[in-house]
Amino acid sequence: MKTYAKAATLVAVAVVAGGVTALGLQRSDGVSAGGPVPPSSSAPPVTPTPAPASSPASAPSSPPGPTSCSAAVTLAKSWQGGFQAKVTIENTGANPLNQWYVQWMMPMGITMTQAWGGTRMQSGPVGMIHAPQEIPRLTPGKSATAGFVATMTGSTPPAFTNVTCG
Asked: How high is the pLDDT of residue 84?
């Protein structure tokens, strides 16, 4: 398919069995197109070009293998209005974990305020620690530890559930 500009109006054309056909557009002279378009001295001639010969396909690169990990979020200590927690992740697979993370659910009313050994993120009751920029890769069989401090209402230690990693 080729596109020609004629009097500031774009007209899409296609070559079909011996003629040029506009595809459902309106020509610049106001005539609805959809049938044969008369040749114009300003439009270049349309000649079909053969399809390029296909090149041999290169072998697709195989994606990295599956990753596997285990993680835990545990309460280290708590006090009225806050607590400290420890986050651990272990690469239990055969492939490295790049840009690893640990994610969990915690009660509403908790706000993560500091973190070490990783970058903290939070959206409501979902907490997350991402790999630190200086050590983003966790090789097979290795583990990493991070921690965070958070504020909370009350003095009941929080429970961390739905812990996932990747």
From this structure: 98
User: pLDDT above 90 covers what percent of the chain?
Assistant: 57
| 131: nearest Cα among 111, 103, 105 | 103
Question: Can you give the pLDDT at residue 18?
Answer: 43
> What is the C-alpha to C-alpha distance for residues 40 and 165, in angstroms, rounded to an integer?
65
Is residue 46 a contact partner of residue 39, using CB atoms and an 8 Å limit?
A: no
Tokens of 143: 């583990």
| Strands 82-91 and 119-123, bridge-based pairing | unpaired
Quote the DSSP letter at residue 155: S
Q: Report the C-alpha gap between 158 and 16 in whole angstroms.
A: 71
> Where are the domains positioned within the chain?
1-47, 69-165
Neighbours of 40 (CB within 10 A): 12
Q: Considering only the top CATH level, what class is 69-165?
A: mainly beta
| Full-model pTM | 0.61
**Bridge-partner residues for 82, per DSSP?**
79, 151
The two three-digit tokens of residue 34, written as one number: 């959809």
Overall average pLDDT of the 84-96 stretch? 97
Burial of 152 (0-12, 13-18, 19+ CB in 10 A): buried
d(CA 107, CA 142) in angstroms, rounded, equals 30
Residues 65 and 120 sit within 8 Å (Cβ to Cβ): no
